[in-house]
Amino acid sequence: MSLKYAYGYIRVSTHDQEEISPDSQEHLLRDYAAKNNIVILKIFTDLGISGRKADKRPSFQEMIGLAKGPDHPVDCILVWKFSRFARNQEESIVYKSLLKKQHNVDVISISEPLADGPFGSLIERIIEWMDEYYSIRLSGEVFRGMKENATRGAYQARPPLGYKVVERGKPPVIVPEEAAIVRMIFDKYVNGKMSFFDIARHLNSLGLKTSHGKAFERRSIEYIIQNPSYCGMIRWNRTENATNRIKDQDEWIITDGMQEAIISKELFDAAQERLKKIYKPVGKRPSSTYKHWLSGLLKCPVCGRTLTATTMKRANGEKYAYFSCYGYSKGKCDKPHGVSSLLIEKEVLKALEEALGSNSIVYEMREIRPQELSNERTLISERLVSLKGKEDRIRASYREGIDTLEEYKENKALIAKERDSLERQLAELEENTSDKIPDDPTPKMLDRVSSVHDILVSDSYSLVQKNEALKQIIDKIVYDRESDTLKIHFFLYHS
């Protein structure tokens, strides 16, 4: 028997009850190879991944790419069962035909031996059909089981910020420190009328983190605001697993949950009401929305209506936005007052830079509800209390020999740094609410402008994020094409 070369492929899904472990599959593959004079060059593994879609399996794609190589590296691919290779018969046939006809590579199931000739091919197709049927049936059963659990109010996903699982099979319980963050987010959104982006920036300035230990982003705030789990509800089947596409609302399951609520149903409903007024449903937004980071801010100098953006293309293929008066397009304004993004974005950046360079800026002061300061004060105080528990834990870890002296000193220094930061923030809040005459807020305004400018010129932020950042310091921008003048209406919230 001549020596052959092979790749091994192992796949383990998330819910298959009949499959064996990856280690066991590898052992069987190597045992088969040794008995059949086959050298396994490499074993590729996809763990916790369904076999229904090949493009969702990175190791599988890598293996196929190498097997198709011009140097003809392998003669065959070894799998424990054909179902490990694919559970979609159409894809299975495509990949097997490609490998066999173009590269003379066979796919061999070590547990499902086939006879040579047409009869063996027929049996192989029957096996593949049965595997696909089983997969479809199993998926349906899993879905029905999860749907039934969701209908009963059982939580089936990783709990969001504010909750943690203490005992498997039991509802998640509230994490007080995280719950305080959630309450603060809803309060700032409903009562403080702050945007998602501004809330995220505020939380990050306090040193707060998401449940994944990361900085807050606009989308993380939006997710929290829309999550009915916080008022004691359950939302399931909202997105497609494969594409993360949001399904139609009539496919969602929303019911009373078993977990304790963090906020009231009234506060959650108020947040959704504000969300409906500000954000239009996906797929129904005007085409002009967020085609540029200036969208929604540019106003007509004649009628005051918003200049809407249309995507244009230059001769070299470069895309840009052209802003034109919405009122003029509807016959409600006498002049078009259009402007290209190629011009206006340079003018806006120039205006921001001039304000920063001169340390002079005209702006309007806006009030924030005192309740917000109270909530911040409470949250900071709670975090200061929690630091005492952290100190006790690192001290115990050192005494029990878990941490070295160097690790203990390093952790202690980090806690001390965090305490100093929180105490400074608390002192600033107390100072801002005192009866003394407030200092000139212009430096703070210029600091905000500087931060927004950094966001605008950075490639790390999306158009939406840049747009949201601008809306935290600018009410509107009026550009008069005839006089070639630009006026930016800045504002600053009271501390």
Please give a structural write-up:
With 495 residues, the protein is α/β, with parallel strands linked by helices. Helix content is 46%, strand content 16%. It folds into four domains: 4-142, Resolvase, N-terminal catalytic domain (Rossmann fold), CATH 3.40.50; 174-278, Alpha-Beta Complex (Hect, E3 ligase catalytic domain fold); 298-366 and 443-493, no CATH class; 370-438. The chain has helices at residues 22-35, 58-67, 82-85, 89-103, 118-151, 176-190, 196-205, 218-226, 265-278, 326-329, 341-358, 370-399, 405-432, 442-456, 463-470, and strands at 4-12, 38-47, 76-79, 106-109, 163-164, 173-174, 233-236, 253-256, 298-299, 307-313, 319-325, 339-340, 363-366, 474-480, 485-493. A four-stranded parallel beta sheet has the order 2-1-3-4, sandwiched between helices. Strands 9-14-15-13 form a four-stranded mixed beta sheet, covered by helices on one side. It is extended, with a radius of gyration of 30 Å. Residues 131-136, 138-143 and 280-290 have low confidence and may be disordered.
